[in-house]
Specification:
By secondary structure, this protein is an alpha/beta fold. Helices cover 43% and strands 22% of the residues. It has two domains: 2-123, Rossmann fold (3-Layer(aba) Sandwich), CATH 3.40.50; 126-220, Arc Repressor Mutant, subunit A (Orthogonal Bundle).
Length: 222
């Protein structure tokens, strides 16, 4: 499980890194708001620990932009500002929880567990890799916050690939999901639709997300 810490106090970052790694979390760090935003958009984190008073871009702005881009990664805000107005502002910006400095590591772990439990239901309806997001509740796909219009079959193919990120998905499994188990491919229909899908979600990008696995099928990966 990967966690991003966005905090400009390097000593605090080092303490949190050691504590989180001891609990077998994978940890990444950013030391200003712009770097944190870029990493949160590019990578698929399970949780973000976000300070408010950051260089370049404050935590409120980072949180608002992530939510505007339909990135629903759980966010716990860390701050020395304990006023009610600040807590309300953080939650209104889209944060899931708010922790006031100084705090104990055990309390942070408890907050992390609580936030992840609350997000389990949401996670079942949201699939994400890099800045590509599928909201199954809305039946909507976005890339970097921009809606990608897919046909029903393209959507079904992407659904299977997103459900198995980094894994080679067989041609038969993809065909069964998009066309049904009785369908017999005659004109390379799968390749045609995968190419359309690859073009739509990769428009304007140097690197694709969908790769061919020869003799097997396709894989979705960064």
């Amino acid at each position: 499980m990967a966690i991003l810490i966005v905090e400009d106090e390097k000593k605090l970052v080092d303490i949190l890194k050691r504590a989180l790694k001891a609990e077998r979390y994978s940890v990444d760090a950013a030391y200003d708001g712009e770097e944190g935003l870029a990493k949160a958009i590019k990578n698929n984190y399970s949780l973000i620990i976000l300070d408010i008073l950051l260089p370049k871009k404050d935590g409120f702005a980072v949180c608002r932009e992530l939510r505007a881009r339909h990135i629903h990664t759980p966010i716990i805000m860390l701050t020395a500002r304990g006023g009610t107005d600040d807590r309300v502002a953080g939650l209104d910006a889209g944060a899931d929880d708010y922790l006031i400095k100084p705090f104990g590591i055990t309390e942070l772990f408890a907050r992390i567990r609580a936030v992840l439990r609350r997000r389990k239901t949401t996670d079942a309806t949201i699939a994400k890799i890099a800045d590509l997001l599928m909201d199954k509740r809305k039946h909507e796909v976005t890339r970097a916050g921009k809606v990608v219009i897919l046909t029903p079959k393209e959507y079904k193919l992407l659904d299977v690939l997103l459900s198995n990120p980094g894994e080679a998905v067989t041609r038969r499994k993809l065909i069964d999901h998009a066309w049904g188990p009785e369908f017999k491919e005659a004109n390379n229909e799968l390749n045609v639709h995968i190419n359309y899908l690859r073009t739509k979600i990769g428009k304007g990008r140097k690197k694709p997300l969908i790769y061919t696995v020869r003799g097997v099928g396709f894989v979705l990966k960064e």
